[in-house]
């Protein structure tokens, strides 16, 4: 149930809508990320099996100033995908920013509803996809919030969530404690921000936040999040971080299951501990235990992004053996990825952590033909036409997708129809 801290949170987001966004910027760029990138939803939620022509209803719960809702609605509009995205938040100030951004883009598939996750407005209906990014960790009862959202999830649907993670936020909670002492939560947001800015100007070199390169929200615009980012990071009256096991328990308690953690490769400790004796010790661990080990070892995860499904629903996994499936590269084009794969390996960096993946000899030839339109069968035929034996093409394609899918840099598109 709402409490005094919840009232302080409501006042915060009215005074400082988060994240800081200028609707005029919509003319030059689309803010993209995870969760709820349409390519990710198609792949990780629906296993690249839900037809693109099937209307999709999506709820962005705790939509703030609009990043997730506008990203998904715009991507659907660009792709000619039917459906509706519903923005839900209780902040009128955030709604005004999000509506102005949507108006600049002329989005007709985005609807705005004010309300609380813990008291969902009547008549919303059910949704094929639900986004809850950066919200659960501020609720008085995160479990109740997730259960409420699971209750409006259509059969076969899925969710994308983001929650804070403790290890990558080293330094944050120390400063939160300091600022609660010098800028009590009872003071107005504007006064607390002014005090926090002064503290940051004199922050000792020994402060752990100074040593944490992955946390930037407290920095001034455009490097960071400006005053809204500073307040949300260091002055937020309620901020709960989840380790992987705690997140898994939260998800299970809501009648859901983890479909994947993003990016999956980051949660694989084999990439961190190549020693054969150590890998032998890890071999018997379950998915959550292995992910918890990777989280504790890496130390750079400030958030966890996860896609969820109903616990009782069939597992939807993308089928890389479907010859009609169309692969889509992210973070570059086929030529760029092909160049990066020369030499038998791909190096990808995740928040300072460099992961080197072995790839098969035909990886450059395969990747150079991935354009978001060619099917797996068409790519295979093109590589074979270049002189590669069919058996090697099949073997190398399978090995390449096994290596790259966990990086979230290649996904399968939704089928047409």
From TrEMBL:
UniProt-listed Pfam families: Methyltransf_25
Transferase among keywords: yes
Domain Methyltransferase residue range list: 59-157
Molecular function (Gene Ontology), one example: 2-polyprenyl-6-hydroxyphenol methylase activity
EC number of this enzyme: 2.1.1.222, 2.1.1.64
Keyword set, alphabetical order: Methyltransferase, Transferase
GO biological process annotation, one example: methylation
Name of the protein in its database record: Class I SAM-dependent methyltransferase
Native species: Muricoccus vinaceus
């Amino acid at each position: 149930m709402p409490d005094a801290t919840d009232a302080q949170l409501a006042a915060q987001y009215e005074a400082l809508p988060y994240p800081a966004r200028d609707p005029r910027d919509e003319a030059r760029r689309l803010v993209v990320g995870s969760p709820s990138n349409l390519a990710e939803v198609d792949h990780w939620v629906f296993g690249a099996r839900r037809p693109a022509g099937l209307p999709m209803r999506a709820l962005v719960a705790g939509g703030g100033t609009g990043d997730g809702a506008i990203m998904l609605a715009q991507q659907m509009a660009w792709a000619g995908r039917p459906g509706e995205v519903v923005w839900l938040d209780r902040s009128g100030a955030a709604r005004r920013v999000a509506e102005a951004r949507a108006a600049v883009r002329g989005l007709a598939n985005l609807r705005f509803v004010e309300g609380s996750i813990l008291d969902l407005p009547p008549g919303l209906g059910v949704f094929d996809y639900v986004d809850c990014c950066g919200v659960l960790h501020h609720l008085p009862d995160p479990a109740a919030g997730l259960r409420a959202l699971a209750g409006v999830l259509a059969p076969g649907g899925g969710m994308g969530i983001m929650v804070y993670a403790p290890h990558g936020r080293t330094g944050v909670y120390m400063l939160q404690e300091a600022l609660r002492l010098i800028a009590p939560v009872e003071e107005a947001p504007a006064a607390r921000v002014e005090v926090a800015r002064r503290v940051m100007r004199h922050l000792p070199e020994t402060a752990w936040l100074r040593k944490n390169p992955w946390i930037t929200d407290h920095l001034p615009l455009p490097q960071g999040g400006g005053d809204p980012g500073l307040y949300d990071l260091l002055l937020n009256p309620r901020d709960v971080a989840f380790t992987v096991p705690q997140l898994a328990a939260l998800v299970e308690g809501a009648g859901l299951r983890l479909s994947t953690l993003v990016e999956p490769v980051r949660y694989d400790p084999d990439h961190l501990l190549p020693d054969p004796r150590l890998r032998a010790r890890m071999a018997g661990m379950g998915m959550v235990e292995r992910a918890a080990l990777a989280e504790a070892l890496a130390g750079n995860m400030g958030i966890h992004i996860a896609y969820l499904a109903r616990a009782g629903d069939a597992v939807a996994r993308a089928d890389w053996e479907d010859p009609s499936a169309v692969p889509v590269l992210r973070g570059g084009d086929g030529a760029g990825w092909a160049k990066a794969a020369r030499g038998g390996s791909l190096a990808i960096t995740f928040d300072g952590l460099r992961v080197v993946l072995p790839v098969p000899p035909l990886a450059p030839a395969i990747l150079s033909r991935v354009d978001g339109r060619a099917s797996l069968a068409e790519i295979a035929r093109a590589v074979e036409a270049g002189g590669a034996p069919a058996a090697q093409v099949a073997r190398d394609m399978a090995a390449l997708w096994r290596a790259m899918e966990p990086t979230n840099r290649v996904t399968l598109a939704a089928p047409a129809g």
